[in-house]
Design goal:
The chain has one helix and four strands, in the order ββββα. The protein has about 80 residues and is mostly beta strands.
Length: about 80
């Protein structure tokens, strides 16, 4: 055990770059103090919007992922078959 009881040497998880945090209405109860986090990740073809919600009042937790094709990929000439 470390010098401080219960302390570990593990680093805190890094928050995703560009993360947005805000408070809003909980989807399960009338609390207006639900904590929301969302962030984006991208690859060559898609954009991924991750989100998480946690309500301290009722304990509701949920998360999800919304995937969309990137606009710059949709409009690329190779994508539309315009280049032979």
């Amino acid at each position: 055990m470390n010098a401080v009881e219960g302390q570990t040497n593990r680093a805190a998880p890094e928050e995703p770059e560009g993360e947005v945090c805000y408070r809003d209405v909980c989807p399960k109860c009338p609390s207006t103090d639900a904590h929301y986090r969302c962030w984006e990740e991208r690859d060559e073809q898609y954009m991924y919007l991750h989100w998480r919600v946690f309500c301290r009042d009722c304990g509701h937790m949920n998360s999800g992922l919304h995937t969309t094709e990137r606009d710059d990929v949709k409009s690329h000439p190779m994508r539309k078959g315009q280049v032979s």
